[in-house]
Write a structure and sequence with these properties.
Elements (H helix, E strand, L loop, with lengths): L18 E10 L2 E11 L5 E6 L18
Antiparallel strand pairs: 1-2, 2-3
This protein binds zinc ion.
Zinc ion binds next to loops.
């Protein structure tokens, strides 16, 4: 029986037929840089992969509102 191309979770060894997809934020030196997606095993929640979500733009910080002087 030939080995099929089946993704196996490196942690629990189960076939990865489904993944949990979570929206996360990529942080570079403490600054939020990009929206990212993480893929986690539905069985054991091990992170299988993370990628930058190029389609989603990080919410840019607008200029500070009226100065809080006073
Ligand atoms: Zn797993």
């Amino acid at each position: 029986m030939a080995m099929g191309i089946q993704g196996l979770c490196p942690k629990c060894g189960k076939r990865v037929l489904h993944v949990n997809i979570e929206h996360i934020v990529g942080v570079v030196e403490g600054t939020s840089k990009a929206r990212c997606l993480s893929y986690t095993c539905i069985h054991c929640n091990t992170v299988l992969g993370v990628q930058v979500d190029h389609r989603a733009k990080i919410r840019s910080r607008s200029k500070p509102e009226a100065p809080a002087a006073g």
